[in-house]
# Entry
Amino acid sequence: MTQLRVAVVGSGPAGIYCAAALTESDEISVDVIDRLPTPFGLVRYGVAPDHEKMKSVINTLSKVFLHDRVRFLGNVEFGRDISLSELHEHYDAVIMAHGAAIDRRLGVAGEDLPGSFSATEFVSWYSGHPDAAVDRFTLNAETVVVIGVGNVAVDVARIMSKTATQLRSTDIPDHVLDVLARSRVRDVVVVGRRGPVQAKFTTKELRELGELDDVDIVVRPEDLEIDAASELMLESNTVARRNLEIMREWSQREPQGRSRRLHLRFLLRPVSLDGEESVQSVTFARGRLDGNGNAVDTGELEQLDAQMVLRSVGYRGLAMPGLPFDEERGVIPNAAGRVMRAAEVIPGEYVAGWIKRGPSGIIGTNRGDANETVRNFFEDVSELAPQVARDPTEIIEFLGRRGVRVVDWQGWEKIDALEMATGAARDASRVKVADLERLLLASTEHRP
Ligand code: NAP
# Structure
């Protein structure tokens, strides 16, 4: 029986779960393509360095690449190194699982002032993403305002509140550790535009903020007053109920004069980021809950001093050449994973993960999501147009002719070994290599 060949674009959890589900059939072989020479997407470049247990899912995801019908083609950028139509020449089907890694905008004045960054930039920097300039952050600010109250806001606030010593044993790159060691940050203020019950963070993540060494957590009791709609929500939403209990306990704490303070504020809608040459403060419109879980302005303004602002208001998907795109939702339009163009299903094209459903859920959510897509692919198999280039070596030769230095799984294993060895020398789990050229060099040269 002729093998069917599937290209999965993106080697984050969604892409890898797709590959795993595809291998259930002996008749399918899979190439997982990634623009980076390293696999695992946001598990490597999004999960915070101090969340090592969460990162250990990498051990499970890695096993998928040990399958003899799954290959990793790293350092291959869709749209630059290979187009959609070229992929169709080599594969019977294409699954887009490239995520939603760009930041949503606030749309307020001063958003682009120096000192204002998206949280995604900060996350990329401390995660050692090759796209993030090594010197992008200095942490010279004494007060940092984080806008948004989701899990990313919690991550960036926590990393900023920790010391270099506390993070030394993680995979955080050396240059990030150096900046953290010189950090002047004393106050981190996390601000939500609605009330505490409407906050998006999960309880485990929130709780950690109150357990940080040498950090006072500051919550004002008046910020925790809620309306009838919030009360109703608490009855059915355990996460919101636990979160509120935790924040109420914090609001009773007396500050202990610790080195850093982490403040949680609510009902403040950002109006502008202010400053001549760089951010000096943020102006917020004070709100009150409107009885439906939303906030309305009270007419009062509040200005918070801040020399650095991190906008943590969610991720957004990136349109990809040749594929339809829903600008409003930031996803590729699809019916349960089958790509749709103007209400028609496009044969042989699928989506999975954040680019399919939007940036929500935890790592595990991508498993069910990927399974749904692959189930539909299996249903369609008999109707797929077979690809022209059937020999799996042809795609490698094609990319070689284009001058693409493909990094395969063995190449990644060399990078992995180098990072682990560097980590051992720092007494860390690993130390990430952040520079693209060094990654490429390691993928060919490093011998464990
Ligand atoms: P998120 O959970 O959607 O939170 C976005 C926050 O931004 C919300 O508080 C939202 O408030 C606020 N916001 C949106 N537009 C705003 C505006 N114009 N002005 C002020 N605030 C605004 O997004 P995220 O934190 O980026 O997380 C993305 C996904 O990754 C989530 O599913 C998250 O759980 C997951 N994640 C998980 C972990 C973990 O498990 N440890 C870590 C990181 C990320 P409204 O609710 O009012 O819109």
Q: What stands out?
A: The first helix runs from residue 13 to 22. Residues 273 and 282 are 5 Å apart (CA to CA).
